[in-house]
Amino acid sequence: MQDNRITVVYGERPDEMTLSLLNAVNLRDDIPANARIGIKPNLVNPTPPEHGATTHGGIVETLIVYLQKEGFKDITILEGAWTGASTKEAFKKLGFEDMAKKYGVRLIDTKTDEFLMKEYGGIEIEISKTALELDYLIDIPVLKGHCQTLITGALKNMKGIISDREKRRFHSLGLHKPIAILNKIIKADFCIVDGICGDLDFEEGGNPVRMNRMFCCKDPVLTDSYIANLMGYDPEEISYIKLSAELGVGSDEIEKAEITELNRTETKTTPSPSRIVQELAKVVKEKDSCSSCYANLIQALMRLRDSGEITKFENNNIAIGQGYRGQTLSCPGIGNCTALFTSHVSGCPARTMDILEYLKDY
Ligand code: SF4
To answer: How many domains does the structure of the chain reveal?
Structure first.
């Protein structure tokens, strides 16, 4: 399969759309015989895909049926929800537990897997043993935005195969570089992007935007470059895409992609993210915060904006992140990392409602 090929399908039925993509690219020809195949959806939290955060189960189910029909027997679904959420709850609520039983495939919560340390460029990363033992990895991210990295796609979806401890450390290392290195160590072999109704601002969903599309591509860097483009960004603006391309994980030269659309639709444009996050983030001074904690703060700030109370906070006034550990500042602090501040809201991650109450009373 050509690395620079992007195949797009429009519609509202994840099962039909998935099958069209798989048949169009002849996925079976790309997978070695008897391969141990891994399927990595995005189940960041236990919310239904209609909320804009998680992969539609119909995509994974259609893929399993396709692979089994083609004679592939060793199939594993693997995922680790973000810190503070339960993967098992997501597996159960979103139908993955039943799906695994029905088709006799393995279901691995990477949070409780064994981990192996792998190193590249002087950075060691603790990665799921199951993921490292696979022969062929199929990455199924949701086309959505992220309040820190602007977009999240195939490259960042790989964070689901590292431990929670490592997820926190990724944020202390600035997120972009470790994401690129993780993908240098273990790279997806094929990506299917669920762009049916992603949230263009928040990785945890809640503001879904119907886009009615899916696409697939062999190269995860090109996959994310295309997502960036669809959301109105230059791939160069997303540091982890640029760094991954520099490390040779794949290509960010979207202009060289060969894009094939399998059908036509009336609703082809992808709405841009509202950029509301960047606006809200002006009152935040962030130093290496974890996604879940930061997203909860942004959600609380949205509510404060709605009630007009955000105006009492000045630019760069609210502190969040691991970079504040041990510091004794007098500004508002979010999360246990700011426990030594004059005042702070506790939690790791801090909960949206607790942050909201704390900031309202501040
Ligand atoms: S308090 Fe927040 S930023 Fe600090 S480690 Fe916990 S989740 Fe991460």
So the answer is: 2
